[in-house]
Amino acid sequence: MAVYTDVAEGELGAFLKHYPVGDLLSYKGIAEGTENSNFLLHTSSGSYILTLYEKRVEKADLPFFLGLMGHLAYKGVSCPLPVTAHDGSVIGTLAGRPAVIITFLEGLSLRRPTATHCAEVGKALAQLHLAGADFSMTRPNALAIDGWRKLWDAARDRADEVEPGLAAEVDADFADFERNWPKDLPQGIIHADLFPDNVFFLGEKLSGLIDFYFACDDLYAYDVATCLNAWCFEKDFSFNLTKGKALLAGYQSVRPLSDQEKAALPMLARGSALRFMLTRLYDWLTVPDGGLVMKRDPTEYIRRMRFHRAIKSPSEYGLA
Ligand SMILES: Nc1ncnc2c1ncn2[C@@H]1O[C@H](COP(=O)(O)OP(=O)(O)OP(=O)(O)O)[C@@H](O)[C@H]1O
Ligand SMILES: N[C@@H](CCO)C(=O)O
């Protein structure tokens, strides 16, 4: 569950007086999500999401995340818009936590996306990349190779408990990535966590993107690779070529990939799979069971790493 901090009705009502959102009618905690405490608010002017930022989000990064949402929304990307308080501030304090109100997006996230949904996601990702190009703030990717290394140093000794041979396998990957990771590809603002739980649909139409709390500056093609990992594998870990084709065609209908970006996809997809394997592995090994952070299975991403390692040509992802 993702309500780590309780909020009393009286203090919430008083907090909302600072925002142009009308009077509180009702509110409830939202179970989905892992990082922060989220509440759905109904007020006399509509619905909103209240987020209390817990310790895994750096407070110093909030102006970047919230400024980015405002910028993208202004550019026509459907994403939540932070609500500005009467005194001009966006970040308040509630129950001792940094707290923000954002607009509510209609739609549902999907458990079983189809190729049509994948095409929509590809298109939306490319639109996000273009829309972010003139955003004035920057944020280095805390989960680029140096960040992976820190996670790996903390988890390596117990990695073989999760999958025998994993320590040696990942050590070899690190050696490869530290020598050969592509650097000269187009880069800018990326979402960095555009998984199905962060994309809303109304039927087959994409209605919005949420959860910009990993957004940063990095390679655009790395974000594409993350989406291939998150959207195009089936439950049995097979890659669905039809979905890959659809996602890549959707992306390229808005922002064509260069030949260099295409050639780098297998390594980027392998790196992205390692990144999600590592955050999952770290939580798996360090967070107590029954604790507050929902643990996700790292082995799903070990399977993806192996798939990408065996790729001979980027056409195997469905590139035309
Ligand atoms: N603007 C919004 N409109 C409607 N629902 C929202 C909005 N923002 C968040 N939600 C709901 O709250 C849930 C949690 O949000 P979010 O993914 O941002 O949380 P999180 O704790 O950062 O989780 P994680 O990082 O694991 O994805 C979402 O799954 C969605 O149900
Ligand atoms: N999308 C991440 C969770 C945190 O955003 C994962 O599936 O591991």
Describe this structure in words.
The chain is of the alpha+beta class and 320 residues long. The protein has two domains: 9-103, Phosphorylase Kinase, domain 1 (2-Layer Sandwich), CATH 3.30.200; 115-317, Alpha-Beta Complex (Aminoglycoside 3'-phosphotransferase, Chain: A, domain 2). 41% of the residues lie in helices and 15% in strands. It contains ten helices and nine strands. It has helices at residues 9-16, 62-74, 115-132, 145-155, 159-162, 166-180, 220-231, 241-252, 259-286, 299-309, and strands at residues 24-29, 37-43, 46-52, 92-94, 97-103, 187-190, 199-202, 205-209, 216-219. Strands 1-2-3-5-4 form a five-stranded antiparallel beta sheet, with helices on one face. The chain has a two-stranded antiparallel ribbon with strand order 6-9. Helix 3 runs parallel beside helix 8, helix 4 (145-155) runs parallel beside helix 9 and helix 9 (259-286) packs antiparallel against helix 10. The relative contact order is 0.13. The mean pLDDT is 94. Adenosine-5'-triphosphate binds at residues 2, 30, 32-36, 38, 49, 80, 102, 104-105, 197-198, 210-211, 213.
